[in-house]
């Protein structure tokens, strides 16, 4: 018998949750550029471990300032190790390792397949319906992401089995963690869960860095420190807490479709800040991706989570 999904907290007005997810999307897109830049100063596993450890510690500081409990409810403790391993250790570790082991196109396409994993997992373990709108958004989103990444896919560095597997592992790990958090049915203590998920998940990353990246050194200059603080505080602490907060207020399958907008936001950022040219294929891909999000939003307005 399929388990019933836990009841969500009071649904947010559409404008608020759409605005929140768009903010998450833009920050996430900037994070990919920051990661790529920061990898010139630190090896990937150590960089990922430092990012998540500092991000979790920052959330604990917020809890102390709020005089809130530092630990999540005991009811949610059994979920914590699994969320830490999937969302943080696998999700962030594979995310940082993938770019150096495959082409940018493969990493972009496979790293943005999280909605596909979540659609299946949410249907199996949360009882969420696979609606026509979700399927339409999935097809449009995957097609759009592929077109956006096509110039890199056609390049000489497009192939790399290990890197492709890591990109898929990152998407699968993050998707699994999101479904676990939704299944746990948090009603409070979201910040505490996010903090300890990041801290516990960072420990295997730091241990693996000590084992496999021991000879490597970190270049502690102002640029790297700035990138690390941005990734830890804004790109990890804030976005993780925001994502878990949103998960309690809408269907995870609908919410995650917005992640297809990450490469679209990345295109816009590159065009505006770096002067990169956006070609016809990328423009068509962006349009298809946005069309998929519109499908999800219209469906959500008629049948709110």
Polypeptide structure, described:
With 305 residues, the chain is an all-alpha fold. The chain has one domain (14-302). Helix content is 73%, strand content 0%. The chain is built from 12 helices and no strands. It has helices at 14-38, 44-66, 80-97, 104-111, 114-125, 132-153, 161-184, 190-212, 222-247, 252-256, 261-274, 280-302. Helix 2 packs across helix 9 and helix 3 crosses helix 8 (190-212). It is globular and about 45 Å long. The two termini are 22 Å apart. Residues 1-9 have low confidence and may be disordered.
How do the SSEs run, as a string of H and E?
Answer: HHHHHHHHHHHH
The Rg value, from CA coordinates, equals 19 Å
Structural class: mainly alpha
- Helix % is over 70%
**Low-pLDDT runs:** 1-9
Number of helices, where a helix is a run of at least 4 consecutive DSSP H or I residues: 12
Question: Biggest sheet: strands, sense, closure?
Answer: none
Alpha-carbon distance between the two ends: 22 Å
- Mean pLDDT over the residues: 85
Strand content: under 5%
Compute the number of strand runs: 0
Form type: globular
How many independent structural domains?
A: 1
């Amino acid at each position: 018998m399929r388990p019933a999904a836990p009841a969500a907290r009071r649904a947010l007005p559409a404008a608020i949750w759409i605005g929140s997810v768009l903010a998450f999307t833009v920050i996430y897109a900037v994070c990919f550029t920051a990661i790529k830049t920061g990898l010139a100063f630190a090896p990937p596993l150590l960089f990922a471990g430092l990012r998540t450890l500092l991000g979790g510690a920052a959330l604990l500081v917020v809890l102390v300032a709020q005089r809130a409990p530092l630990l999540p409810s005991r009811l949610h403790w059994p979920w914590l190790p699994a969320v830490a391993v999937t969302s943080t250790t696998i999700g962030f570790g594979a995310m940082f390792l993938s770019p150096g082991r495959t082409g940018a196109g493969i990493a972009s396409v496979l790293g943005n397949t999280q909605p596909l994993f979540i659609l299946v997992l949410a249907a199996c373990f949360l009882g969420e319906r696979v609606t026509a709108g979700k399927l339409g958004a999935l097809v449009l989103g995957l097609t759009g992401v592929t077109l956006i990444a096509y110039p890199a896919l056609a390049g000489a560095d497009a192939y790399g089995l290990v890197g492709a597997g890591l990109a898929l592992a990152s998407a699968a790990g993050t998707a699994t963690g999101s479904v676990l958090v939704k299944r746990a049915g948090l009603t409070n203590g979201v910040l505490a869960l996010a903090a300890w998920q990041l801290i516990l998940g960072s420990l295997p990353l730091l241990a693996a860095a000590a084992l496999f990246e021991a000879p490597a050194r970190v270049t502690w200059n102002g640029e790297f420190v700035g990138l690390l603080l941005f990734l830890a505080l804004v790109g990890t602490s804030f976005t993780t807490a925001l994502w878990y907060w949103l998960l309690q207020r809408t269907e995870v399958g609908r919410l995650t479709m917005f992640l297809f907008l990450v490469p679209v936001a990345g295109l816009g950022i590159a065009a505006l800040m770096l002067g990169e040219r956006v070609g016809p294929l990328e423009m068509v891909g962006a349009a298809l991706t946005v069309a998929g999000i519109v499908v999800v939003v219209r469906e959500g307005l008629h049948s709110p989570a």
